[in-house]
Amino acid sequence: MTALQGIKPGALEGIRVIEVASLYTQYSGKMLAELGAEVILVEPPRGSVNRAVPPFIDQQPGLDNSLAYNYFNTSKQGITLDLSNPKGRDLFLRLAGKADLVLEGEKPGVMKGWGCGYEALSRIHPAIVMTSITGFGQTGPWAHYEAEDLVALATGGFLYLGGFPDAPPVGAYGNQAYLGAAMYGAVASLLALTNGEATGQGEYIDVSMQESMVMALENAVQFYDLEGKIKKRHAGEQRWAGTAVFECKDGYIYMMASGIGANKFWPLTLQWLIDEKMPGVERLMGEEWHREEYVITSEAKQIFAEIFSPWVKTQNKRYLFEEGQRRHIPMAAINSVADLLSSPQLAYRNFFIDMPHPATGRTLRMPGPPYQLSGTPWRSQGPAPRLGQHNAGIYGGIGITADELATLADEGVV
Amino acid sequence: MSKRKPLEGVRVTDFTWIGAGSYTTKILADAGADVIKIESSARIDSLRLGAPYKDGIKGVNRSGYFADRNSSKRSITIDMKHPEALRLVQRLIDKSDVIANNFTPGVMDRFGLGYEAVRKMKPDIIYLSMSMQGATGPQSSYLGYGSSMASVTGFQQLTGMPGREPAGTGTNYPDHVPNPCHAAFAVIAALRHRRRTGEGQRIDFAQTEPMVTLLGPTILDLTVNGHLQEARGNDHDRAAPYGAFRCRGNDRWIAICVMNDAQWSKLCRVLGHPAWMAESCWMTEAQRHADRVALSERLQQETVHRGAEDLMQALQAAGVPAGVVENTEDLIKRDPQLAHRGHWVPLDHAEMGPTLYNSPPYRFTNASVGLTRSAPLLGEHTGEVCRELLGMGQEEMNRLVAAGVFR
Q1: A71 touching B, CB under 8 A?
Q2: Cys-Cys with A211: which of A240, A383, B346, B361 at CB 3.0–4.6 Å?
């Protein structure tokens, strides 16, 4: 293995994960795989629902064409298996017998009904960790309810906080509920594996997507608990004077001139406005502008907007971002996706990676490492698997011969 | 036998403050790590001065915003500008497995606690730094909060309504889920590597990068298809109706997600088969999606006369994904599922009394994971940590107190 010499190890090297393909688990599996775990994605013989998620390459649906599938399943090996078939169950149990972690997102009771639940797994492999991620959790009055991303944003209280006061609540973009549950599922799984390595003990973990979104409410729950106030959506309004979205010449910026406890960025902001000789800036010079109690008033917000808005509309967002930051003000450009691709910062950090797509021969440019670990770097282990791509190798590893595999395929098990 | 906590025996010297950093070390603390938060009244964690406060009365030990993010931790106060501070922190690092911060790059170096310096003190340390855009690159010195990260990453622009200014989520979202989960995951992974090899390492964590990784499919739509996605309200790629619809009452809404034609039939049935829903123009998903604006308007004329809770129950009984758009009062007082899971944990706090905390959103069967104590008062554990952990005698304590180190 000379080619591998000098390559740093993965932090999760030696951990074997079986992921029963689902929208809930796919990002968990990716996180584990890209820090070094061996992740085997188990799909039904006709492919998982994840392959039907838009957007598609050239807008053409097809087993290999979902960009979401191709992104969230990199670095995994793929096999097919019908878990609802008794022979499929037996194969699953044999695979799980050699695994450290099973990730699944079936409805509560489904895995058990197939004979693949935690009790069955732990009987043959007491140290195994099983993580189940579902909409509302395994038990309770809503356990069997139908969940969807927006339903979890809603019942988690996150949806109520988003959007404009004069319009319906608007949810977080991009399946954040599924992804949030997946992230917590990954953290919990790693905690259980840590405990298992110390004690030899197995674990069963129950993750709720609804509850994962409750974690996103910032201080809204405490506002109700401590002060009896129900926080509402407020897009389009300044949170404090100077802390808001402002329209500029070529888009929008998000500026934080004040707020969050100590009002420490106010003097720097004021100096900028003075240096730019904004008409009316003297109206911002009173000591009351240093107090949160004042900058949260409508009067303060209105005065600030009257002075700042006409000027900021004449400036472009890149200049505002760089100049604001040069002055140590938390100024941010509201970037589009296209801006990310031209970001000098992300480019410097080699953030985007080019992933081959064997089915089309194309290259897919996608996000790479979410963190940089010096000793055990994040590493892609290759493109998302094609359907059943690793059947021969994985099943061979548990003693299934090529002939047996062919028979199983004929029977529709794999 | 009491259940073991997964991170029992792990100690964190915690310089994180405000948002994502504190939420990261909360995950570790709730899982059993001994997280010792280094604070100072000379440089107060601004979340301690962030609303809301118990009974609306401001005070460094009264913020609910701070409390929820700092469960299960200990707090000591050290004035890092004091000449004796570094030596003291070094003793703590010597007993720690992880050191964490979320300052802009350079601050830890000014404390004498840059990575190389800390590695000399403790070669196997895991050093987590969570700056806004990472420790390297032309914008590494930039500063920001959760909303800044949401903006820079494209997430703010994508969350909102077409044709209006970018709305965002109304919160500092990257602080609450993406960054804490990724950072905690990386630390726990690094701890595993350390157990196996004895090696520590540096984790350079840019608080923008996890959020961008979550937008992968959207980025691929541009890099592969040349298609630039924009804000689209609650619209789904293919399914309709899919959105939030007004119900009876003051600002009451229900989320309804019809994911296939069978669910459309069920929705029609639950709503009592209104004539317009039987029209052939709504038969297929493609038709409904193409005309989704008109569809949503008509559907809302049905929901607006219904109670959100009752409609949710009726739709769920029929197998249609639906949920009340819950406000915080709903979540705490009425949601039976969160109550069943014991999500809201009341913890007694020395100054605030009993207040609610978030439990982690996962339940373990064998190990013990969950809150062990309410948030610490500012410097509550200074004496305890110095005596019991650092083995400091009373004489030395008195000298350091007199010298003003523990500010």
Answers
A1: yes
A2: B361
Look up residue B15 and give its two tokens. Answer: 């310089």
- What is the rounded average pLDDT of the residues B222-250? 97
Degrees, nearest 5: CA angle A33-A35-A41 = 5
**Which of A223, A349, A366 lies nearest to residue B136, judging by beta carbons?**
A349
DSSP state of B333: I
pLDDT band of B392, cuts 50, 70, 90: very high
Average pLDDT over residues B73-84: 97
Judge whether residue A186 has pLDDT over 90. Answer: yes
In this prediction, residue B401 has a pLDDT band, given cuts at 50, 70 and 90, of very high
Picking from A199, A227, A260, the nearest residue to B145 by CB comes out as: A260
Q: Cα angle vertex A336, ends A335, A342, to 5°? A: 80
What is the per-residue pLDDT for A258? Answer: 80
Closest chain A C-alpha to B391 CA, distance in angstroms: 28
A67/B220 touch (CB, cutoff 8 Å), yes or no: yes
Q: What is the pTM of this model?
A: 0.98
Q: What are phi and psi of A406, to 5 degrees?
A: -65, -40
The span from the CA of B170 to the CA of A150, in Å, is 16
Task: Compute the distance between CA of residue B63 and CA of residue A166 in angstroms, rounded to an integer.
Answer: 30
Report the chain B residue with the minimal C-alpha distance to residue A216. Answer: B176
Q: Which residues of A touch B175 (CB under 8 A)?
A: 218
Q: For this structure, is B175 an active site residue? A: yes
> Tokens for A35?
């820090």
Residues in chain A closer than 8 A to B186 (CB atoms): 35, 371, 373
| ω into B241 cis (within 30 of 0) | yes
Q: In this predicted structure, what is the pLDDT of residue A1?
A: 37
Q: Which of B350, B329, B348, B347 is nearest to B338 (CA)?
A: B329
For residues B381 and B68, what is the distance between their CA atoms, to the nearest angstrom? 18
- As a whole number of angstroms, the distance between CA B206 and CA B136 comes to 9
Structure ipTM over 0.95, yes or no: yes
Q: Which of A152, A153, A134, A85 is CA-nearest to residue A114? A: A85
Neighbours of A22 (CB within 10 A): 21
Confidence of residue A3 (pLDDT cuts 50, 70, 90): very low
Inter-chain CB proximity A205 and B31 less than 8 Å? no
CA nearest neighbour of B207 among B45, B20, B28: B20
Rounded mean pLDDT of A156-185? 98
**Nearest-Cα residue of chain B relative to residue A36:** B189
Helix, strand or coil, per DSSP, at residue B11: strand
User: Within the 37-76 window of chain B, which residues sit less than 8 Å (CB to CB) from chain A?
Assistant: 44, 46-56, 64-65, 67-68
Q: At B166, give phi and psi (nearest 5°).
A: -55, 130
Which structure tokens are listed for A414?
Answer: 């794999």
